[in-house]
Amino acid sequence: MDKRSFLKFTALASGSLLLTNSAQASSGGHGAPNVQELQALAQKMIADVIAQNDYYVKKQGEDFFEKMKEGQQPRATVIGCSDSRFQGDSLDAKSENDLFFIRNIGNQFSSNMGSVEYGVRHLNTPLLMIIGHTRCGAVKAAMNDYSNLESNIINELDSILPAIRKTEMVAGNNELNWLNAVISNVHQQVFYAQKEFAHEVESGKLTIIGAVYDLANDIKHGHGRLKVVNLNGKPV
Ligand SMILES: [Zn+2]
Fold first, then answer.
1. Can you say how many angstroms the Cα of residue 53 is from the centroid of all Cα atoms in its chain?
2. 81 Cα to the center of ligand 1, angstroms
């Protein structure tokens, strides 16, 4: 058994999936801390990034960048999970200068309030979107004992915990519980945002939506579909 498999095995055997292990289990992340392998991956990634950037620059052309000189004018502030399976182009084919994107584990509001506030109150985006996703490792971690994780991670998971406590758990149906916890977390984060921006929402300057990006077709509306679950603090 290699180290990665061993980590998964021990986590499952203990009945406690930690954030790192659950993320690896669900997304196939590079879990084994083999330094040579990691360095080779990093080198390859650097070369890929340089090449992809070159392709992007040529594809867009100079006019595209010239138009951005004067500043940004996004239409939406977006809080999304950092999970690499969720990307902005699933929402917006031309997201440049259109999405003011803030990402963290578990699409939390409270750990990036300054950035969110800048999008809403300084860039005046008329829309704030909070987007969770199915099979979220952060939500999974918050459903279990995460007290032995790093303190910075604990702080972020703590803002998800109230959502977990509100989720009605069905015995023996972990997949359903996970999905319901993801949805509950979106409601929870919208609740925090609604409190902060109550004045903007009441005056009509701001609309807040909460949505789930269903990468695994767990909601049964199709793989990759976005399901809106909350509008201005009310479930839809
Ligand atoms: Zn996630």
1. 24
2. 5
pLDDT in tens, 156-180: 999 999 999 999 999 999 999 999 9
Residues 61-94: tens digit of each pLDDT: 999 999 999 999 999 999 999 999 999 999 999 9
The tokens describing 234, both together, are 């009310």
Interval between CA 220 and ligand 1 midpoint (Å): 19
The two beta strands, 127-133 and 207-214, are parallel
CA distances from 78 to 62, 167, 173 (A): 27, 24, 31
Residues with CB under 5 A from ligand 1 (ion): 81, 83, 136, 138
Q: How far is the CA of 236 from the centre of ligand 1 (A)?
A: 21
Specify the 3-state DSSP secondary structure of 191.
helix
Distance 135 CA to ligand 1 centre (A): 7
- Write down the pTM of the prediction: 0.85
Distance from Cα 82 to the centre of ligand 1, integer Å: 6
Q: Where are the domains of the chain?
A: 72-235
The pLDDT tens digits of the residues spanning 180-226 come to 999 999 999 999 999 999 999 999 999 999 999 999 999 999 999 99
Q: Which CATH number fits domain 72-235: 1.10.1040.10, 3.40.1050.10, 3.90.550.10, 3.40.50.2300?
A: 3.40.1050.10
